[in-house]
Amino acid sequence: MNRRQSIKALSVTALSAGLLLDACKTDTSKNTSEVDHTNLEYAAGLQDFEKERLEKLYAQPNFFNEHERNTLVILGDLIIPADAVSGSASDAKVIDFIEFIVKDIPDHQVPLRGGLKWLDMQCFSLYGKSFSGCSKDQQVEMLELIAYPGKTKPEFHQGEEFFNRVRNLVATGFYTSKVGIKDLGYVGNTPNKWKGVPAEVLQQYNLKDE
Amino acid sequence: MGDVQIKESAEQYDVLIVGSGAGGGMAGYVLANAGIKVLMLEAGPFFDPVKQSQQLKWPYESPRRGAGTTRAFGDFDAAYGGWQIEGEPYTTKDKTEFQWFRSRMLGGKTNHWGRISLRMGPLDFQPTDGLSDPWPITYEELKPFYDKVDRMIGVYGTNEGLENDPDGIFLAPPKPRLNEIFIKNGAAKAGVKVIAGRGSVLTEELPGNKDRGACFYCGQCGRSCKVYGDFSASSCLVIPAIKTGNLKVITNAMVRQVLTDKEGKATGVSYVDKTDGQEYQLKAKVVVLGASACESARILLNSATAQHTGGLANASGVVGKYLHDSTGASLGGFLPQLMDRKRYNEDGVGSVHIYSPWWLDNKKLDFPRGYHIEYGGGMHMPSYGFGGGIAKMNGAVPGRDGQTKPGGGFGASLKDDYRRFYGTQVGMAGRGTALARKENFCEIDPNVVDKFGIPVLRFNYTWSNEEIKQAKHMIDTFQEIMHQMGAVITSTIQGPETNYGLEAPGRIIHEVGTVRMGNDPKTSALNKWCQAHDCKNLFVVDAAPFVQQGDKNATWTILALSMRTAEYILDQRKKQNI
Ligand SMILES: Cc1cc2nc3c(=O)[nH]c(=O)nc-3n(C[C@H](O)[C@H](O)[C@H](O)COP(=O)(O)OP(=O)(O)OC[C@H]3O[C@@H](n4cnc5c(N)ncnc54)[C@H](O)[C@@H]3O)c2cc1C
Ligand code: SF4
Predict the structure, then answer these.
(1) Beta strands in B166-300 (DSSP E)
(2) Over the stretch B203-246, which tens digit does the pLDDT of each residue have?
(3) What domain range is A128 assigned to?
(4) Total domain count for chain A?
(5) Residue with CA closest to ligand 1 atom 19
């Protein structure tokens, strides 16, 4: 396990480091023999019913058709485009997360499918095309109508609901990916010793930690 | 299907314990270490955090990114079970509400609990409010056991000399995170005292213990610690007790009832083995219930016989009654001062770094007792739901250009905002004393059984005005603290129509009181040793014996009481009284 290095490098007590290395050594192959397409590490601590459930979900055909999937990818990149810091939603494969989560949490299915249809119908009446067929300017113009909760015109409220859901799913998909975590600058989830707020940060805010 | 066969074992154990959580685990540990042959029955599977914990996994290792689809507190949380368990329903009466959280695994709910480890105080045992009942014991009587639990398990905190929040034998507490310093300062201005948290996490190596490692600050105690740096009954009590050679555990063993003889004495238990569906009966000289407060009441009520009509240990009729959970309400927001904050690892420990013990005098208030406040916030590992609050944040303060734009949005500026607001959030939650009232109870539903054919519990619970007023006080206080620290509140402020955000009964998962102890057998089920008044070789060691919970979370008191009861069992065996 590659954590060996990071543990060594950090000031963890000898006893903890030893115990943690032992823990990382555990053989996971037996537990996970039935879930070959899932991440082996992840499946290691799961209960049987959780593994079976995963298997079933993976065996299901895609929920979204090509057109829907394509539209979600476009929406994802409009919500989280690439910038100087990191890549876009599609670089982080956010669509694969969304495809999985609608099977895992079926409550997402009707609002997303229906919302995509709603979006296409709006675009059709405004621009004579589906959302994915619109120009980028038209797409942006459309989103401007539904992207600001509380500011939306009554006739677009359903669109606001739909877009809130898409924005939140895209944010989850992106910021829980390697790309997104790096973008945020989250540097935890690794053995260390917490010694309080760094001195320069205390100074920045003019604070004392006593 | 063939005829029902009940497999009886000829062997008689010294002590048989039902449940392996805080209560059952502690009793098993004390008794096994004293050299007694103990058998423990646990309804869930074996769980050892070393192998089964999800600690240090990244969100992208889960296809659902940590969503709570199969585990109530998220994919990486340690709890097997949840608010609902397939094939094991519970019901409610007269449209009242109660939510019952069950962990089904070795160690029970202690694999993923918050590790907030508070002693109840002298006034919690002997209340002076004129409303709540006194315990048959005082703080002074339980203090030596709290002390022993502190030494044996380890708890961090600071000695403060507060009258009703007793000091302990503490390890060094973790320092506050940045958001927590802001909270502390804001709370001070609002007149609310904030002190170091008290949690059962080994911030230092535990003197004399070579099996447990010190905390390495991943902030993930809820996943249960692989180096046993936090307290779980599995890693710190049951597994070490098994190693003594005196404790045997049968997992996946769902106890149906306690068996009794013609004299009314307990002779053992019957259980269904979940792996083969068979019925078994085991014999023991002493039976100890630690199946969790409501489940122990259920077992007793389901153990009725001609001797024990209305249930075992229930001559008083109180079993199932006086059910109470803590009150709870919460508020969230963010600190605009912390936008664009510097990044560093502030995971800290997986329990609270700071908290506010109850600080007011009730004489000036319109409700009895009080609550404590738990705080949180900071640069957490992202998980399912990340960024969900952005629309309430990025429209609330001016952007980089000094202009305030509408909340929500999309594109490059939204992406910039996710970054800017990361780590600015703060939250606070009150946990308060709910009154133990006869009218709040669980009982056997006359019409419903679970998949094992065991009659299920039916709950009846309503909040009283005292608790609602307490929630109002919480919400008012939280707003003031938020205001004083310059935070923007993002939660909706709850009013009278929702009882000021008072959580549904059961939600706080501190349910206690269903097999209450007392000196009078007419009004209590157990004596002051948690021994059944009407069945001398039967004991209860979970939170069921609590007479009246304080605002303190229950577990440290469960551990101390269970240790005390286990030592009493040793004493009574020596004297050949049981
Ligand atoms: C998310 C969460 C956070 C919490 N945070 C805190 C906190 O910070 N501080 C605090 O003090 N408390 C906290 N608690 C509460 C704490 O977990 C409980 O008080 C404690 O675990 C209760 O211990 P117990 O032994 O009574 O029951 P449990 O821990 O529930 O153990 C009971 C065991 O009995 C088994 N069992 C049940 N029925 C049967 C049966 N019929 N036959 C055989 N076995 C059976 C169960 O499977 C289980 O393993 C928290 C709880 C949760 C869920
Ligand atoms: S915070 Fe410390 S005790 Fe808790 S799981 Fe992480 S290392 Fe273990």
Answers:
(1) 195-196, 247-250, 253-260, 266-273, 279-289
(2) 999 999 999 999 999 999 999 999 999 999 999 999 999 999 99
(3) 3-204
(4) 1
(5) B555
